[in-house]
Amino acid sequence: MHQEKTKHLQDLLSSKFKQQIVVSKIDLGDLVVEIQRESVGEFFKRLKEDPDLTFNMLTDVTAVDWLDKKSNRFEVVYHLRSFEHGYFVRVKVALPESDPTIDSVLPYWHAADFLESEVWDMYGINFRNNPDIRRMMMYEEFEGHPLRKDYPVQGKQPRIEMRYPEVRNTAKDMVRHTLVQINKSDRAGGAA
Amino acid sequence: MSLKRHLFNEDLGIGGVSTHMRPRALNDDLHTETMILNMGPAHPATHGTARIAVELSGEEIIDAAVEVGYLHRGFEKMCETVDYNQVIPYTDRLNYVSPIINNVGWSLAVEKLLGVEVPKRAQYIRVILSEISRICDHLTCLGASAMELGAFTAFLYLVEAREYLWDLVEEVTGARLTISYTRVGGLKHDLTADFAEKMHEAFKGVRFHLDNSDRLLSRNRIFLDRMCDVAVVSKEKAFSYGLTGPILRASGGDFDIRKANPYSSYEDFDFEVPLGTKGDNYDRFNVRFEEMKQSMSICEQAIANLPDGPISIDDPHVVLEDKDEVYKSIDGMINHFELVIRGVEPPAGEVYMSVEGGNGEVGFYVVSDGSGKPYRCRVRPPSYIHMGIIKEMLLGHSIADVVPTFGMINMIGGECDR
């Protein structure tokens, strides 16, 4: 039943998106669709809003770095689910290294906010029209994008500047430089 | 700073309450201003390492910013440097309250890539231990949340119940948390001989404590006041924010991967998926409570019908051979050597496999280039995605509602930050 559904979805998508879809195949039971970067906005809008599709959940957004292995270095991978029809699809978009920019899908799914921020943090892929892209896992001063294949596993980062140098550390004033003296003779007759 | 930018952004995207919507002061002469309060990353009234900065007008939350990433240790980068079986100990540290579910998810993903299926007995054992872990996860969530709301007795009951189950897990796997029980293509070893009796014994204790704490909590006015009608999430919003697991089901979204896309023989078992009607904190509490009872029923069905047979597939390129074979035959020796040095080598390709974790859909997206190490390994962490809706949930509520809401989201740092 699952296979039939996947096949049905493949036919449906092929008929609806003749221009946009570059490759469409069934890989280990899941439908995989590759689309052009230019058609991202319209494609996802219709996936969400078309009553035959209604993909109402953005399950995951991630990326793969094909350094030197493919002509387009980056690949953004979306996993989407439709609860009404029980569909599941993987959408892939290839991006060149020179301009890793793609339209955000935040207008269609709220989940894109955190997921796209993470992809930018880890891969440096820019999401157009997502106003709140920020470092999620790394700190703000981090240089580079750690999941890229050319970022070394044991990569070292420079020390960062103090964030609020004007804030005085009052704890320093409270440190007692001389330890409390215990005068043993005072305790004569106490514990031996 | 990002937080300030986040807090004072006039045209926040969807969901944000921008600053011009602040309630007008009753008396314009009276000088009032909002206050920014930091909760976390280590706050006495919450558990988990996440920072929530809230902007308050009196006690009402008018804006919130969530910061995660305090427990980031580069899981995905580390996975690219080790072979497929060596990833399993790393997956223990994702959701460390229910590590077996992560182990199972990872093993299933690699097995799907290899195109193999483990024997029925191994599948049943995976189900039994996954369900025990799910109960542990829910017990931790409910117990800790109850404690944060002042119900310390309920916390002690629930943690004692969890202790019975962890003893059971320890009995089988040898460890309580970092268990690394599954292997690609099977399991580390079989159940112990008297596992069934011990399990029934433990469940008796768990049921006793569940009944007790249910009586303590669900008729407690203080508890109900702080849980009911707080942080209501509609079904549409839950879908849009990508919520899964008990949180989605509390909002009425009928989706459970065990039912929708059965893995590891879940189709053999008869169980119900509890659904909430309102989507508030109390529904999330109730859904978890009911799920524990269902999980115990699944375990009992599985142990009653546990098939005999091997616990690993019979393929020397995937699973280590018997020591007898290794020491006494040249083939066995070579296979052992190859597997230890090169690791499992799935064909080049990619796969997405998801399992129903304690908090929601735990998905593994694995890309293989045909070598012994994964080229790319991505985890879809339910907790991380759930953190995205916290702001939306909190707006308009009072500062005291942060505690039960955050507790019911049940953010697990290891899984959220990876």
Features:
heterodimer; A: 192 residues; alpha/beta; Beta Polymerase, domain 2; five-stranded mixed sheet; two-stranded parallel ribbon; 4 helices; 7 strands; 21% helix; 24% strand; B: 418 residues; mainly alpha; Cytochrome-c3 Hydrogenase, chain B; three-stranded antiparallel sheet; 8 strands; globular; disordered N terminus
Would you give an account of this structure?
The complex is a heterodimer of chains A (192) and B (418). Chain A is built from four helices and seven strands; from the N terminus they run αββαββββαβα. Chain A is of the alpha/beta class and 192 residues long. Chain A has a five-stranded mixed beta sheet with strand order 1-2-5-4-3. A two-stranded parallel sheet of chain A has the order 6-7. Chain B is mainly α and 418 residues long. Helices cover 47% and strands 11% of the residues of chain B. Chain B contains 18 helices and eight strands. In chain B, α4 packs antiparallel against α5 (120-148). Mean pLDDT of chain B is 85; it is low at 1-21. Classes of the chains: A alpha/beta (192), B mainly alpha (418). At the A-B interface, β3 and α3 of A face α2, α9, β6, β7 and β8 of B.
For the record, what is the CATH homologous superfamily label of the largest domain in chain B?
Cytochrome-c3 Hydrogenase, chain B
Structural class of chain A: alpha/beta
Q: Name the CATH architecture of the largest domain in chain B.
A: Orthogonal Bundle
Strand tally of chain A is 7
Radius of gyration of chain A: 27 Å
- The CATH architecture of chain A is 2-Layer Sandwich
Topology:
The complex is a heterodimer of chains A (192) and B (418).
Chain A: H1 2-16, E1 21-27, E2 30-35, H2 40-49, E3 57-65, E4 74-82, E5 87-95, E6 101-103, H3 112-123, E7 126-128, H4 171-174
Parallel strand pairs in A: 2-5, 6-7
Antiparallel strand pairs in A: 1-2, 3-4, 4-5
Chain B: H1 2-8, E1 35-39, E2 51-57, E3 60-67, H2 75-79, H3 87-92, H4 99-114, H5 120-148, H6 152-173, E4 182-183, E5 186-187, H7 195-217, H8 221-227, H9 235-240, H10 245-250, H11 257-260, H12 281-304, H13 323-328, H14 330-342, E6 349-356, E7 361-368, E8 374-380, H15 382-387, H16 390-394, H17 402-409, H18 413-417
Antiparallel strand pairs in B: 1-2, 2-3, 4-5, 6-7, 7-8
Helix pairs in contact in B: 4-5, 5-6, 5-12, 5-17, 6-7, 7-12
